[in-house]
Amino acid sequence: MNNDNPRLSAAPQKIDTVILAAGLSSRMGAFKPLLPFGRSTLIETVVDTALEVSARIIVVVGHQSPDIINLKHWDERAIFAVNKHIEKGMFSSVKVGAALVKSPRFFIVLGDQPQISMSVYQQLLAAETADVIQPSYKGKHGHPLLLNETVRQAILAADENDPDTNLRNIIDGFPKRIVKINDPGILIDLDTPEDYNRRECE
Question: pTM for the whole thing?
């Protein structure tokens, strides 16, 4: 059997993935999660990819949350958590999602990064374990992040009302393993109309 074939490990693992999709999409000028992408939408693409490697998906929503929740009949492994305080910023969504994680390790991925492939998740899962596992492309760090329970507890203990508190600062306090990935998709988030319009050129 050839274990180098990524498809051989495509079955969902006992791991949760938190998808952050609560923002206002203010820089885009349109609601990003529901923008067309491929044969569906941005948020569906991100969820579907994560479902290929995860036992459970926690989608943190906020702005226009009913539009995402009621978009379709979602896979039963996808649950939705509403961040009622999105004005506090992205870290508040990280805390909402982390609070619902049940697996010993979990992914965090941004809802506007539909070009992250299943292979990226698999390469992170295959890496030698660490508190924080993060992909990099040409020296630049990207997403998703693979975190363990120790990091989750630090996230939950952090003060979301402190403007200096963010996920980057928290993970920088833990041993980190960087996994080189030959895929620019780990760096591409679709924040602006320009990002969205040139997505096919990346």
Answer: 0.89
